[in-house]
Design goal:
CATH superfamily: DNA-binding pseudobarrel domain
Shape: globular
CATH class: Mainly Beta
Order of helices and strands: HEEEEEHEE
Radius of gyration: 14 Å
Helix content: 10-25%
CATH topology: At1g16640 B3 domain
Distance between the termini: 12 Å
Strand content: 25-35%
């Protein structure tokens, strides 16, 4: 059975000629009680989502606009935690979208990028 969300994610990846795929974990959406809420992003492809290279000893933030599969938009931040950790996270989702993202825990998420905008799409189970 085809999923319109999956078809859109594939179309976006083909259009932008790149994609970052990951499964949304309970820790990513704050369901574990951890203080590390936010989507962990791999360091190896940092150029896809931020202009800030990973620098040990320094934190950086980069504002992005997130578009969910249903077209809703929220302003978020890509944060490099280089002072105390060594990781990137996508954080600051609007509280009104938290339940939407939590419903998609264990779902596949994709992210494509262009030079002027970032998009993050949560898939369906």
């Amino acid at each position: 059975m085809k999923s319109p969300y999956c078809e859109r994610a594939i179309g976006d990846a083909l259009h932008h000629r790149n994609a970052l795929l990951k499964f949304v974990s309970p820790n990513n959406v704050g369901l574990t009680g951890s203080h590390e809420c936010g989507f962990y992003l791999p360091i190896s492809v940092w150029q896809m989502y931020t202009p800030h290279a990973p620098v040990k000893g320094r934190n950086n933030e980069h504002a992005v606009s997130i578009v969910l599969q249903d077209g809703r938009r929220t302003d978020s931040v890509i944060t490099w935690y280089g002072a105390a950790k060594h990781e990137y996270r996508l954080t600051r989702f609007s509280q009104k979208y938290t339940s939407v993202i939590q419903r998609h825990t264990s779902s596949l998420a994709s992210r494509t990028a262009t030079a002027t905008a970032s998009r993050y799409m949560a898939g369906t189970r």
